[in-house]
Amino acid sequence: MGIERGEAFVLRVRDFAESDLIVTLFTEQWGKRTAIAKGARRFKSRLGGVFDLLNRVEVVFYAKAQLDLVSQGALISSYSHLKGSLATVLTALAVCKLLDSLLPPHQQESGAYTIFMQLLDLLERGTPHGEQSAIAAMLKIVSVLGHRPQLAACVRCGNTRGPFRFVPARGGIVCAKCEGQGIDISPGLALSLNALIDRPLSRAGIVRLTKGDLSRAREVVSLYVRQLLGSSNSEL
What we know:
- By secondary structure, the chain is an alpha+beta fold.
- It folds into two domains: 3-77, CATH 2.40.50.140; 82-229, Recombination protein O, C-terminal domain (de novo design (two linked rop proteins), Up-down Bundle).
- It has helices at residues 86-102, 110-124, 130-147, 187-198, 211-229, and strands at residues 3-16, 20-27, 31-37, 56-62, 68-77, 164-167, 172-175, 183-185.
- Strand 1 and strand 2 form a beta hairpin.
- Helix 1 (86-102) runs antiparallel to helix 2 (110-124), helix 1 runs parallel beside helix 3 and helix 3 packs across helix 4 (187-198).
- The longest helix has 19 residues, at 211-229.
- The mean pLDDT is 91.
């Protein structure tokens, strides 16, 4: 393993020792990497401010089996407009946490990288459908990672009329005749969420969701990701 250079998003930052940082990066070419940025917390460090959460950066690092070593870093975008709104920051961080939780280490995931970049660009431009775009991004990310939920018909009998319940362990919606547990989800919302996966992220706002729909959609995504992680105690 040698020296690598490329672009990345900062997914996680932790203090280490007296002046170092351990950063989790989602790189365009090498997937999720965890690296130590020595001296990054020093007042006069050239890396100061580079590795803030959600930043898009250019990084040079020595690739190692477990913990990489950052040798250089430069800021590409801090998404300053996005970070000017607490609500928008929290929306972006929810997707950031999902990526940190689900991405396998050291495996290129160009589809998920592109989706995350598109979402941050939309939020930076001030899209009026930020939360809906984030839900769409989450559904798209789990789908490109190979875990697309079945939202078009009952996973057991193929019923498309409902009523439905979303059952994470089944990987999607199940009609009331086939399953008694799960959370209720209307056929309309199930189809809307399915459309969010298929539509370009820039057109997520075309799908009409009420506040109640958004709340239920957040619950569906959260429960599904917990199931994928194999822990009922995970929080997103």
